[in-house]
Batch of 4 targets.
Target 1
Amino acid sequence: MKPCRIAILGSTGSIGLNTLKVVDQNPGRFRVVALTAYNNFELLEGQIKKYKPSHVAVGPEGLDHFKSSGIKGVKFYPVVDCAEIASLKEVDTVVLAMSGTGALMPFLAAVRAGKTVAPANKEALVIAGDLIMKEARKHQARIIPIDSEQSAIFQCLEGQRSKPVSVHLTASGGPLREVPSKDFKRMTPRDILRHPRWKMGPKITVDSATLMNKGFEVIEAKHLFNLGCDQIKVLVHPEAIIHSMVEFADGSLLAQLGVTDMRLPIQYALTYPDRLPTGLKDLDLAQLGSLNFEKPDLKRFPSLELAFEAGRLAGTMPAVLNAADEEVVEAFLKGKIGFLSIYKVVEKVFLRHRIVKNPSLKEILEADQWAREEAKKIMEPRLRC
Ligand SMILES: NC(=O)c1ccc[n+]([C@@H]2O[C@H](COP(=O)([O-])OP(=O)(O)OC[C@H]3O[C@@H](n4cnc5c(N)ncnc54)[C@H](OP(=O)(O)O)[C@@H]3O)[C@@H](O)[C@H]2O)c1
């Protein structure tokens, strides 16, 4: 069997590193053709030496560094050219492990080139899901999600002839599930970055604390599985063992269970339709004893409802929600605003936006830019004090 030639966009992040562990776990099955990163060129350099990709994209500092590094046989690209890497003829599968809106153009390029795309990144589908899915259908590109909830739904739908009546996205509840609301205003980035179940990048960890991450997943699922927002339910499940469920007309629920380790959905996406050993420990349900479920508390975590509303309104609203959230979370991580301001600022931008229905790519990018500027304007007085 010929090795699957993969490009890992965002190889230095949490998903990227787990993807490379999956490559190591399956010798001979993959060839790493391309790697990309933004700032962390030192880690990237180690990856280049180990995996010998022929194409690498990196941010400006890294580009300067690699010019004089003496590395041979690698074509270097500026990070803004990740789309070029995603559509290389030498690539079979593109792993979208980069964070943020920057994944949009590579995602579109990959589906237009008919690649198999394994997205962990959710921002691209949130802001331009209609466009991406339309292009994927047109170019017969296969999308096999890595995000664990979407992977679970994908797996539960495998081999089913009937469409689901609903899907149940599970949520661990994030780092604030047991923190009293009165303490939210004191939460620092350090407090928030201690997630009880998943070890992830900083942006998604903050989004898990506000439950905005779950809201983004609602919009992501809507596009990936062609569902209405009202067919998507969110269920808090603190053990994070059931990664999501699918409900059919007869009342049957199918669930996918597994240890909380992203290597599982990553490997499934990369070896699909095969299932191979992961080297992960077995799930010991008897030792676990019980699984718990509760409804999400929308009063404490209003971002989830806001995201549902953005998904229902559609058009440019999800792009606005995502862009405002990206700006505000970055300000929080830099210690410029408090935790409670995250929701307040995002909600203000949401309320000020005039939706464009069925937007073009240009209109989506304009809405994204508008939302960032609006968020910055709203935060300005706070940033000064
Ligand atoms: N982590 C998880 O368990 C998990 C689960 C489900 C979904 N996801 C989604 O997967 C994506 C990646 O998450 P993560 O936790 O792996 O994030 P992360 O640890 O912060 O890693 C982000 C990766 O993207 C690169 N990057 C950052 N900004 C970039 C830009 N402007 N252009 C190109 N590359 C850029 C980073 O490079 P440098 O390291 O050089 O900065 C790094 O390689 C996110 O969309 C997240 O929502 C993550």
Target 2
Amino acid sequence: MNGGGRHEDLPAEAGYVDLIRRLYGSLARGDSSTADLIVREALANGLSASRIDNSIIGPAMERIGDAWGEGELGVAEEHRATEIAFRLLATLRSYERIPELKRQEDVVLATAVEGEQHVMGLRMAADVLDAAGFSVYYLGPDLPLDALGAAVRDFQPRAVALTATMPSAATVLQEAVGMIRAVDPGVTIVAGGAAVPPSIERLGANRLDDVTLVVERLDALLRRPELN
Ligand code: B12
């Protein structure tokens, strides 16, 4: 898989705009074949999986949400688009180089806070970390607070990656960070998603929204725990 493609550093916004527009159109129509071809085209153009996640699939899904909010798409069409987008993430995974050695000691728990069903951003972050060799335990949407505490105790991760996208999840996120810290004061916490408030950093969690940077940032945090 192309980790640092030739075109990666170019200011490619114009190219992204076209890819986003076309991907949005295919997702809205439920045209999974075209969606797949667009992702393959982006890969062939030298974009990395995380760049495609962050700059093409994410924005296309945002437009799906806008179209749903404006009544242009129904709930069923939104669900169909979401399912296709998750399949695109799986396609990207199949192009990813599988690390020869997993970093067994670097266990990362990836989960959405209680009540949070939106997990595409978290899935992207988990995939990117997994491809970089982290041992990712992906726990998915809506993990109850108690179960989160139990998972931190039982799996003893070095890091926990959280997502919170709904405004209502902001308070729950603070409780989740408190629960994790109570079980393991030293574990590294990163949190992404639209509902993560800047104030979360005061609780000792690291705000991070760009999946293209998640490996680099987490590696730095694990190397230098005082950054936590
Ligand atoms: C798909 C979708 C759903 C699906 C989710 C399915 C799933 N398995 O994920 C379903 C149908 C379940 C759903 C439900 C609801 N949804 Co909805 N949904 C969406 C939609 C269209 C796309 C979300 C998405 O996947 N985006 C793509 C991802 C990749 O983007 P992202 O989450 O922002 O993640 C990026 C970054 O934030 C970052 N990131 C995120 N998490 C993490 C974590 C880490 C560790 C890192 C490093 C990075 C990171 O990485 C990503 C890449 O850039 C959005 C529209 C939108 N604007 O996003 C609405 C949207 C989020 N939903 C909305 C609403 C209102 C709801 C419901 C309340 C609807 C209802 N009445 O039931 C429920 C609430 C469910 C709940 N309790 O969580 C609103 C939220 C408005 C608001 N801010 O209050 C939106 C914005 C739609 C809209 N325009 O109104 N939804």
Target 3
Amino acid sequence: MPACRSLIASQLFLAAVLSAQTAAPQAAAPESLDSVLWAQTSVEHDAAYLQAFRIARLMLDRAQADRTWTAAIEQSAGYERLPAAVILDVDETILDNSPEEAQKVRSGPTTSLWKEWVRKEHSTALPGALEFTQYADSHGVTVFYVTNREAPDKPATRRNLGQLGFPLNTHIDPILCRGEKPDWGSDKGSRRADIAAHYRVLLLIGDDLNDFLSGVHVAPDERRRQVSAYSDRWGERWIVLPNPMYGSWEAALYSHKGELSHQEQVQQKYGRLRVIDP
Ligand SMILES: [Mg+2]
């Protein structure tokens, strides 16, 4: 019957349209699809952030009351009377940039959209981050943002943070970008040391080992040793957030050799899998 054929034809057309909309492009990176979707859609992601910032708030109260408390290993003596501060990373710690990662899943892993994304100032606040930073600020604790965004991206970053309501101390510059000073490289140790010279650092909060320690661009086994060596700090002075999308953990899988092609990196990652039958 014509009506029936028409119905089938329209259903087939609809199926084709839906398929075209949802089909993964050939160049997509399947290894990042699930991690991006986890960050964007799972309630477990949101709960992990809320949990982390709740712990951070509890620890902030303890840290303020204990003048011998410091979170920074760059701080060893003479800090007890310094004003209090907390140091937070920005990306995937307090700001959600997963749309940029999602775009790469669609358009291919080698597409660089970062600069364009940062200048849109469309990053959103991650769960619990705003409330925690405002709590710290309202309790007289200076909030510092130590980020590996580059210095030219600082104005856009400041506007993005300000529009979302993150506290931005107007008496000092609370955003410390990579490359802003000659010794401020991607290793954040020198920036932590500069803050520690003037403030007692109550907490370090981040999504990458680099947010807590220097010299983390080493092999996975060595990174595991670094974490173990400071096991008493996690969940107390150091609060870590989950980031399955990117980070020094991922580069460690291919020995931090950024010059390798994407295919070579993927090949080395497969070699890292622990399987039932090696
Ligand atoms: Mg980060």
Target 4
Amino acid sequence: MQQTKRDVIVVGGGVIGVSVAYYAASQGASVLLIDRGRIGHGSSYGNAGLLAPVTVNHFPVPESFLRVAISP
Ligand SMILES: Cc1cc2nc3c(=O)[nH]c(=O)nc-3n(C[C@H](O)[C@H](O)[C@H](O)COP(=O)(O)OP(=O)(O)OC[C@H]3O[C@@H](n4cnc5c(N)ncnc54)[C@H](O)[C@@H]3O)c2cc1C
């Protein structure tokens, strides 16, 4: 097997891994991004690659369910 040295190896090609790989590469690092499946087909696929905490409903207390239930 051919061996190639990399500065950075990123495991997982979701929005986080791809972003880490992108920014490391943009700083001049040689990067290897590996995924057990298809790039971008984990949770990031379900959320279209977005991280938007403002859109997340949190359920730490029972009242949160009431807020969701009465919101339009
Ligand atoms: C339906 C849905 C709605 C969502 N809504 C929101 C929202 O409104 N706001 C918000 O902020 N977030 C939301 N999220 C959550 C958000 O999508 C995730 O937090 C985010 O995409 C996680 O990104 P990630 O890169 O950490 O993980 P992932 O996108 O899951 O990527 C992880 C990758 O790692 C790979 N992997 C795992 N284990 C291994 C291994 N051992 N070896 C190699 N590869 C491996 C997987 O194949 C996958 O490709 C939502 C998620 C879903 C599914």
